[in-house]
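Researcher: Let's do a round of design. I'm pasting the structure tokens now; please hold your answer until I've finished.
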């Protein structure tokens, strides 16, 4: 079966998040000279359950050979197709501050099928500035740009207090999917895809795990106490 000939099916979010991890490691295997991979091989590298790896990959529709696995020359493009990375999708970005500028400069988005073609902001000092090849435009122009270019994806990198109004602008222009980096919950109409990236959630997890490792007990009366060794 060739990539794209199977029916796209629902896949659990946890499995969907693991597929890019598999993909990166498969590419590393190719770079190291490998031509074939089994689920057991991949699971060993990642410290995962081989059964889980096999289920995740089988959900994409590709079938491997028992005790042999998959030819890397087939599995890698299959995953690219399943994840939509081989079909470029244009995106607009709202919020050209520090985070937005970093997103504009991240070239790997392009390699994985997302092209941020325009940036918008409300800051007069930002408007007209060129950031990684894109001229920052007034935010009010965003809906017309989206309609004119039939853009499907909107990326939000604004402060929390303006994220909802930016969402509304994107939806009014016809955006179908929103990638939200703002540290707040936003509401979208039914049928609009919303993907939240909560950086504070990841930071909280990192901080908690680090303090647990260092033996720092919970805050008591505003003071942290280290556990006795």
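Researcher: That's everything. Go ahead.
Model: Designed sequence:
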């Amino acid at each position: 079966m060739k990539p794209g000939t199977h029916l796209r099916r629902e896949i659990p979010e946890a499995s969907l998040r693991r597929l890019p991890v598999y993909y990166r490691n498969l590419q590393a295997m190719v770079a190291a000279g490998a031509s074939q991979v089994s689920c057991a091989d991949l699971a060993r590298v990642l410290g995962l359950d081989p059964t889980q790896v096999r289920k995740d990959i089988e959900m994409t529709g590709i079938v491997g050979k028992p005790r042999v696995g998959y030819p890397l020359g087939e599995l890698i493009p299959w995953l690219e197709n399943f994840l939509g990375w081989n079909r470029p999708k244009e995106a607009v970005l709202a919020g050209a501050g520090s985070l937005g500028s970093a997103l504009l400069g991240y070239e790997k988005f392009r390699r994985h099928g997302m092209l941020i073609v325009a940036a918008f902001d409300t800051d007069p000092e930002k408007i007209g500035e060129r950031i990684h090849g894109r001229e920052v435009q007034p935010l009010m122009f965003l809906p017309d740009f989206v309609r004119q270019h039939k853009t499907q994806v909107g990326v939000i990198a604004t402060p929390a207090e303006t994220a909802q109004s930016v969402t509304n602008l994107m939806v009014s222009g016809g955006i179908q999917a929103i990638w939200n980096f703002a540290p707040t919950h936003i509401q979208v109409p039914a049928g609009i895809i919303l993907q939240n990236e909560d950086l504070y959630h990841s930071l909280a997890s990192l901080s908690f795990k680090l303090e647990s490792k260092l033996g720092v007990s919970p805050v008591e009366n505003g003071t942290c106490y280290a556990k006795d060794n």
